[in-house]
Amino acid sequence: MGTYTLSIVGESHYQDAIRPCRQGDRVILKREPENPHDENAVAVFRENGEQIGYLSRDHAEWVARVIDEGKEVEAKIKRILGGTRDKPTRGVVIDVDTTPHSRQTEKLQAETTGFWKSLFGRRR
Question: How far apart are CA 91 and CA 7, in angstroms?
Answer without folding.
Answer: 8
